[in-house]
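Lab meeting, item 3. Inverse folding demo.
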């Protein structure tokens, strides 16, 4: 037999003859070269399809197995669509967070009483979360004992009342970009707390443990660089003083006090994450937990606020920007964000939402420089880069570790 007889080619390369697939050229030595038809292969596929592999017979009676093109195409498209939905959902979360940071920055500079803001905000949040609790968790067996109420009280105190009030005071003394960059330290502080409490081990003999430790060191270095090194200041566009003062009042920053407030907020949030381990065990209804925590936090904020300022002007609401911020933060930054994060964790895993958190920092930095005319300091840029690198190093190690040792998924973002 001639060497060219009974051979098939793909892109000019001769392939051993074991049956033809769609789009493969053939040359039988006598007929003209052609292309195997799709209809021929599909008719054979219908007969010989089995478990995602297709055994086809050619005219010479030989068989070959190859993946089913149409089936694999549908699977790929489904995977792409699911991935796209998760990405869009997390981008929405970051957009909500960015809008909230800028709105809060404006109203705090305008003199809004922080505890009044927190009181009204969490009333709105509880109202928005309530339908999910009554619809999705109706009839589930979970009794509200005295022990659970005590845990809910401390859950609200650490995760909302203390953490959020310290964050808002720190935001007022600094900038939104700086405040958001400090928040990226929360996973690292939580990791350190978990090691101290022996909830987690270092595991430095593994790549995952080394990555988490490197991430922690980079984040601490970034935080020190951001707070201690100022460097050269520059603006995205020409600094327009009248434009920036029209949006926010000329408030003098107190970086040292603001940094201490923001650090205290991170410590409270990390403590709150540690409380979630116990909270999820004794009261696993996440929507009910969120709603009741918001109600308790609202009462706590009201009592503390009344002790600090009882004037009607501090608590008065009107049809203005503070009211818009309250509704926005309760409906979108709390209720909608919680639902999107819960859905993303169920689909993609517990570390997935945290991977998008640095985007809020980038969005806030750019918009704050554009809208408010804030200067971008070199120390903040270098520190932010170190924090983002450290965060992704930690999340990579955490993801590797979670694959080896499956753990219960917890929310990995902070609602501020």
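The presenter then showed the designed sequence:
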């Amino acid at each position: 037999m001639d060497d060219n007889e009974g051979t098939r080619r793909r892109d000019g390369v001769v392939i051993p003859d074991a049956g033809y697939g769609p789009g493969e050229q053939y040359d039988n030595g006598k007929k003209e070269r052609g292309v195997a038809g799709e209809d021929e292969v599909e008719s054979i596929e219908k007969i010989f399809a089995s478990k995602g592999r297709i055994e086809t017979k050619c005219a010479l009676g030989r068989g070959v197995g190859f993946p089913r093109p149409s089936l694999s195409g549908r699977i790929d498209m489904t995977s792409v669509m699911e991935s796209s939905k998760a990405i869009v959902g997390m981008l929405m979360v970051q957009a909500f967070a960015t809008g909230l940071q800028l709105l809060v920055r404006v109203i705090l500079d305008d003199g809004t009483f922080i505890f009044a803001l927190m009181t009204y905000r969490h009333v709105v949040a509880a109202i928005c979360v309530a339908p999910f609790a009554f619809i999705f968790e109706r009839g589930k067996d979970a009794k509200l004992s005295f022990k659970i109420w005590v845990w809910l009280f401390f859950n609200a105190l650490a995760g909302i009342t203390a953490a959020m009030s310290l964050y808002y005071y720190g935001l007022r003394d600094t900038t939104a970009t700086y405040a958001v960059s400090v928040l990226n330290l929360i996973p690292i502080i939580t990791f350190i707390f978990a090691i101290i409490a022996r909830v987690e081990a270092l595991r430095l003999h593994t790549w995952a443990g080394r990555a988490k430790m490197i991430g922690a060191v980079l984040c601490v270095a970034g935080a020190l660089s951001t707070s201690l090194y100022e460097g050269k200041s520059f603006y995205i566009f020409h600094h327009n003083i009248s434009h920036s003062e029209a949006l926010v009042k000329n408030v003098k920053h107190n970086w040292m006090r603001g940094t201490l407030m923001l650090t205290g907020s991170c410590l409270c949030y990390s403590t709150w994450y540690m409380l979630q381990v116990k909270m999820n065990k004794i009261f696993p209804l996440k929507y009910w937990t969120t709603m009741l925590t918001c109600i308790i936090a609202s009462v706590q904020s009201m009592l503390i606020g009344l002790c600090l300022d009882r004037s009607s002007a501090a608590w008065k609401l009107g049809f203005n920007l503070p009211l818009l911020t309250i509704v926005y933060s309760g409906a979108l930054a709390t209720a909608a964000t919680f639902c999107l994060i819960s859905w993303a964790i169920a689909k993609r895993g517990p570390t997935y939402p945290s991977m998008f958190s640095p985007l809020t920092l980038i969005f806030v930095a750019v918009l704050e420089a554009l809208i408010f005319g804030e200067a971008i300091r070199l120390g903040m840029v270098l520190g932010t880069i170190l924090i983002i690198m450290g965060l992704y190093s930690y999340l990579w190690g955490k993801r590797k570790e979670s694959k080896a040792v499956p753990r219960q998924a917890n929310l990995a973002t902070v609602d501020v």
